[in-house]
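Exercise 7. Predict the structure of Abi-like protein from Acetobacter malorum.
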Amino acid sequence: MNLTALEINDIKKSLSNPRMVSWNKVRISSDFSLLNSNVLWSNRVNSTSSSPEELTIKLHQFNFSLCMSMIPTLQIFEILLRNKINDNLKSYTANPMWWKSVRKVNLNKGAIKKIQSAEDSINNTGRGVNPNRIISELSLGFWVSIFNAEYDNPRDVSKNLWNLTLHKIFQNGVSVSRGNIHSDLEEIRKLRNKVSHNDPILLNDILSTYTKILQLSQYMCPVTSRWIKRNSPIEYVLSSQIKKALVVVRNLYGR
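Solution. The predicted structure, encoded as tokens:
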């Protein structure tokens, strides 16, 4: 069923006027007919009889559905990545708290600060600090930063993590480069942050990022990559019609 005028007004206030204005620009495009259809929402809603403001709200609704469908994939990928890095650096340093082996792993001040914050957070809950709890407390941004260019320095053993050990994480990849790995991880991190904050992701190339998640997972663990693909809700949400619609949106509105 369609929304009433009062419902539309209340929802507009909840979503905020700037956001409504932004998405309304997308909706009013003359080439936006594919998204002004029942492709995006339940057939119980007659999109042709919906008001312009309701269609804009429906656009948000679909964006939220996309965010929800990406959460399981992003969460599994983040767990896979951090565990692979952790296992790799534990083996490399022979120390479960590898960040303390500064002669081999010389993290920058920002990374050390994040580890200290993780320890403080654990202590504040009354739990004892141990390596596993610290690892699970660290953000995706921390793990992505491990592939920064500063850790690809052949002149400094403690800053040469990529060449000495981290490249082994992606052993199933053919001639992978640190730069490409970092670039792909940054793209995934940005999408993950948008999804976490319910920001618009319709304008992102979701399919491209999803493909990179599967590819990097394949490099790290082919079995897990196949498992992600078989069980990812995004595989079912992105029908062929919706894929075409998302291309239309990006072409019209840009990233």
